[in-house]
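lol ok so funny story. i was supposed to be doing the assay writeup but got distracted and ended up predicting the structure for this chain instead. priorities right. anyway since i did it might as well share w the group, maybe its usefull for someone
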Amino acid sequence: MRIDAHQHFWKYDSERFEWITDDMAELRRDFLPEDLYPILQTAQIDGCIAVQAEEHLRETEFLLELSESHPWILGVVGWVELAQDNLDELLDAWSSNSKLLGFREVLQSKNPEYMLRKDFIRGVRKIGKRGYTYDLLTYPQQLPAALTLVDTCPNQRFVIDHLSKPDIKTGDWKAWKKSLQPFGERELVCAKVSGLVTEADWKKWNTHELYPYLEIALEIFGPKRLLFGSDWPVCSLAGEYGQVLEVIESFTNQLSADEKEAILGGTTQEFYSI
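and the output, tada:
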């Protein structure tokens, strides 16, 4: 099964999606399943994981509702504030929904210390006990704190979104690699090869410019711990869905059939228990 492990849906509202800035104006519209489905069919992708794009409980409910009416939305990475006092109550309410696979907060917009607070760590442990995964959305400078979080929650399954957004546009990869390297030794941590085109020059990037970052990811995690994600529709700022997929398709041609299959869907199935 070929799976897109990372994409988004939304009904655009300027107040709710303030992160969509003027230079992202083309994202200021609705992006819904009927927009994505024909793209997935053309790309021969069997299903996808819908990931939160708004930090609000209504986001989780919105994505779960979409997944119920569209079977090819295989699962949801929702939003919940892990440090809140009524976390157990919320998790109880969602416990019967098999499409809810994990959670994510927008850590990249917060101080690194945010993820090291006792109440946040307590929340991570709570979702882990219930079998939920956690998506780490970070910048490279936040990786040391993320590593501490991972080591504090050794039984939790984590996945690093977008390879932690290396600065591909400037080609500054050494510090990023050094910070990412230790995660390779943490067996329950995977990484998404997603969101890379938007970290490059939106208008001038090329496939081979992305290869060094994919090579490093492959070296650190191996194919069995890498997940393909399109980051649609955000990726459209720099390239069409097919272009994003082609980067991974062409890069993985060097691998065995089983290894390529892992990156393009098998690891996603295993990580999210689909």
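The chain has one domain: 3-271. The chain has a mean pLDDT of 96.
back to the writeup now i swear
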